[in-house]
Amino acid sequence: MSNTTAVNTAPLCCAEDTWAADLVILPFAPVLVRCCAHGIQHVEILTLPDPDPVETSDSENTAEQGAPATGLVTNDDPDAVGNETDPELAPAEPTEPVPYVLRSAGTRLAAAHCRMLCKQLQRYARGTLQRFTVPIAPAVWQQATPFRRQVWHTLYEQVPFGATVTYGEVSQLLRGNERASRAVGGAVGANKIAIVIPCHRVVGANGIGGYAYDVAVKRALLALEGGTEHQV
Fold it and tell me: Which NCBIfam families has this protein been placed in (predicted)?
């Protein structure tokens, strides 16, 4: 595979005060999503960090996915974007779990991305969606180092629903050197878009490995996907 990743040259980032945010309640944990007009900026699983992600002495299992804390901004303005009656932005049907527990103000397009991502996350949790189609904001790729971008792109494009890959296997794909697994772990830990960029599918050679959003959540995600063996 090529080690180069095409980078969208759209404007680096929307102003953060134009982003929209929603909290979707899924069976394994609440998930905060934040989007700008260009697409997804953050997907954060709201659990306490795993205090001890190391399961074996294997160096691969020392890598874990990071999850920087994100401030929540409430919005009670009935005229704000996201509280409108536009069909694309209206609340979910009563038969579905309510995805909009919390919302921050944002542009119409940012709110539309948030709504669609919430719907897709609900379908993912029900096992009826295997690939997300809401775009990732170009800034996410542009602000990453080249190596991190390669790792994320490899996971996003080449490790599908139901598959798992070890840190060493990813480093072998990218650098031809299994000993670079710690560098892969650093890239996994820097991922800001949980589930969509599927760092939970990266496991240790001798165990499930760590996960900053809690190993129990990682187990739940892999069980949902049926990812019990290395398949990449």
Answer: ogt
Structural domain contains residue 45: yes
What is the set of active-site residues?
199
Give the SS3 label for residue 16: helix
Q: Note the pLDDT tens digit of each residue in 162-174.
A: 999 999 999 988 8
**151 by DSSP, 3-state: which?**
helix
State which residues form the domain around 68: 16-225
Helix axes 181-189 and 167-175, enclosed angle (nearest 10) = 110
Asked if residue 11 is part of any domain, the answer here is no
Does 84 or 150 have the greater pLDDT score? 150
Residues 131-154 pLDDT 10s: 999 999 999 999 999 999 999 999
In degrees and rounded to multiples of 5, residue 42 shows phi and psi of -145, 140
Residue 117 lies in a domain: yes
